[in-house]
Task: inverse folding
């Protein structure tokens, strides 16, 4: 099976949405128990068990330190990419790498999560974190950026454009943004691929990313995901400017990636019958040239 299957709204795999490809796991707890026995972990609080069968547990090692045990489908674990991201301190290290292809054990990071409405200080930490990605060495078979962009484009504006006449998505804008993205320089950086608020932990002195869905691409892509999930629409210019200055990003490319991801996200929400959040609607038509003076690099 293609190990680069994606999940959630970014269901861009060629073969179709993940929900039609992977059956929920019923044996996740048993897998966690086997790994715990092998590594001498005491399993604790169940943090989350996803609809697809993923499972996150807190556990304690014999030395008293706390770890996260995550069980998911091997196709979604991307352990080689995860290791490459961990090597540059972007994600917590994988402890006992390769014990099983469907289990990751990482140190538990004590810290705060962020919700939409992040302040500039939080975005500053994310920008510093993004800088680490330039140093990561992608595995040779890491998913390419073109596959991600084409996959999302197809699922959003493809044959059966699902939003109908009232669609807030401007298909032409999406097409031209996809062209900008695919012309971007530095498309081979190993990205996190799902840099949402739920996948970042802010410890005392720095941010950590967890739960990567890695693929190659330009840094602007991950920066845009952060903006989409965390930043209030009316504060976008300041956050985009800060990210761009600290991580040396192309602001226009951040804007293209943001519009593009917002459009795909809205289409997904409409498809599953969810409301279309006003902030995300605003992001789908974000116009960089409307940013106020003094914010340009
Ligand atoms: N190593 C860790 N340190 C601290 N918190 C963690 C760690 N791993 C997971 N968590 C917590 O568990 C939550 C879920 O983890 P993760 O994102 O890996 O699971 P998931 O099932 O893929 O969730 P989702 O589908 O929401 O992305 C995180 O939002 C975070 O709060
Ligand atoms: Mg997550």
Result:
């Amino acid at each position: 099976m293609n190990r680069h299957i994606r999940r959630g709204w970014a269901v861009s795999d060629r073969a179709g949405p993940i929900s039609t490809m992977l059956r929920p796991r019923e044996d996740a707890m048993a897998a966690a128990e086997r790994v715990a026995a092998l590594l001498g972990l005491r399993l604790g609080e169940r943090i989350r068990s996803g609809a697809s069968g993923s499972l996150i547990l807190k556990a304690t090692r014999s030395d008293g330190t706390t770890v996260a045990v995550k069980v998911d489908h091997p196709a979604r674990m991307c352990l080689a990419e995860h290791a490459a991201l961990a090597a540059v301190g972007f994600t917590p290290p994988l402890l006992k790498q390769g014990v099983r292809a469907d289990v990751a054990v990482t140190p538990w990071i004590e810290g705060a999560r962020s919700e939409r409405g992040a302040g500039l200080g939080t975005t500053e930490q994310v920008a510093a974190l993004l800088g680490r990605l330039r140093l990561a060495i992608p595995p040779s078979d890491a998913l390419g950026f073109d596959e991600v962009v084409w996959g999302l484009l197809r699922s959003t504006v493809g044959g059966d454009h699902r939003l109908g006449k009232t669609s807030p998505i401007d298909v032409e804008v999406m097409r031209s943004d996809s062209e900008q993205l695919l012309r971007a320089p530095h498309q081979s950086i190993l990205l996190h691929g799902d840099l949402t608020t739920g996948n970042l932990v802010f410890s005392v002195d720095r941010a950590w990313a967890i739960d990567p869905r890695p693929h190659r691409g330009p840094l602007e892509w991950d920066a845009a995901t952060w903006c989409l999930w965390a930043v209030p629409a009316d504060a976008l210019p300041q956050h985009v400017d800060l990210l761009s200055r600290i991580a040396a990003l192309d602001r226009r490319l951040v804007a293209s990636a943001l519009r593009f991801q917002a459009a795909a996200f809205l289409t997904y929400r409409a498809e599953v019958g969810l409301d279309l959040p006003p902030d995300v609607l605003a992001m789908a038509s974000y116009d960089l040239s409307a940013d106020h003076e003094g914010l340009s690099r």
